[in-house]
Design a protein that fits this description.
extended, ARM-like, mainly alpha
């Protein structure tokens, strides 16, 4: 490490703000402003053209993002901005129709998972050549979504009105016990001296 690197590391360890940290704090403040409620429309338009992608992501995910800004952000060079737009609650149907032609699988998956994505867009995604995208779109068409839980594990939920077969209990071959799946028994390998 050069002398400059050691001095920067020492300053950072001692809590003295380094130029890049001050810049990060400034970007964080702008992101917080972009996510805040009651933001003026003129400020939304200004922040949608910000040089930092995280600020544009925050604007793209706003439920009140204007249609014109959505159209501009749908063609953003950063994939993360397009993913935020595709996953946003305020996504317009016409913009979803534009995003369905995106080449990035992450954008298409976010579009398939979004509850506001129009049915015709989901139908186009359901026949996509990438199986993971098509599977997510078919689940959305069938009324099944993956919902996050408190533990972070995704569970399958069904939309209201979706047709499903009632769960069937399989009887155990041993008396009146309910069938269940147990974890496999641990196996101990040979001991090596």
């Amino acid at each position: 490490m050069s002398d400059d690197g050691w001095s920067r590391a020492l300053m950072a360890a001692s809590g003295v703000p380094v130029a890049s940290e001050a810049r990060d704090d400034g970007v964080r403040a702008v992101v917080m402003e972009a996510r805040s409620d009651g933001l003026a429309r003129s400020r939304i338009l200004e922040l949608a053209q910000h040089k930092e992608a995280v600020v544009r992501e925050a604007i793209a995910s706003r439920p009140d993002c204007p249609l014109g800004m959505q159209a501009a952000l749908a063609h953003d060079r950063r994939t993360s901005v397009r993913v935020s737009l595709a996953a946003g609650a305020g996504l317009a149907g016409s913009i979803a129709a534009v995003l369905v032609g995106d080449r990035e699988p992450a954008v298409l998956k976010a579009l398939a998972r979004n509850a506001v994505t129009p049915r015709n867009v989901l139908e186009r995604l359901a026949v996509h050549r990438r199986e993971d995208v098509a599977r997510l779109a078919r689940r959305a068409l069938d009324g099944v979504t993956l919902a996050p839980t408190r533990s972070g594990v995704q569970e399958i939920e069904e939309h209201q009105g979706a047709r499903t077969a009632p769960p069937r209990e399989v009887a155990s071959p041993v008396g009146e016990r309910v069938a269940r799946v147990l974890a496999p028994r641990p196996a101990v390998g040979p001991r090596h001296p």
